Amino acid sequence: MRTSDNLLVIQPDERQTYGDIACLVDARDAGGRWGAVIVRSDRGTSGMTHLHRGEPEAFFILEGDIEICGAESVTPIGPGSFVLVPPDTEHTLRVLSDQASWLAIWPPALTACSRRWNRRVPMGAGILRL
Asked: DSSP string of 4-69?
């Protein structure tokens, strides 16, 4: 919903969902700069190891225990943790608890891709360069 002064307000029942991803803000609504989603996932699942050319990504953990995996490091994170992934940095998340959810602030390329994603990828399945 747009307010009279053009603020965008997304109520929980207004979110577009794509599998385990609930879109809060599409890059089109943010001047093409970023998108924001809430991701939910189950134990043992992770995204494909990837990097974003020239674009950062950020995560805020809402619930559950997760590992953020870089090219050379694995760091446990939990509720309240914030992660900033610099541009051109390999990364993925792996869920350790039964379930987890996080807010992801994505570069515009991933916002469009999220509509087509509804699969879980095993760790080490390769590197995706976006």
From this structure: TT--B---GGG-EEETTEEEEE-GGGGTTS-EEEEEEEETT-BPPEEE-TT--EEEEEEES-EEEE
Task: For residues 70 and 80, give the distance between their C-alpha atoms in angstroms, rounded to a whole number.
Answer: 20
Checking if the pLDDT of 95 tops 60, the result is yes
pLDDT of 5-53, one tens digit each? 999 898 988 888 888 888 888 888 888 888 899 999 999 887 788 888 8
Rg of the Cα atoms in the chain: 15
CB 21, CB 95: distance < 8 Å: no
CA distance 110 to 127: 15
Give the pair of three-digit tokens for residue 114. 């999220």
- The token duo for 37 is 């989603």
pTM score? 0.80
Distance CA 40, CA 2 (A): 26
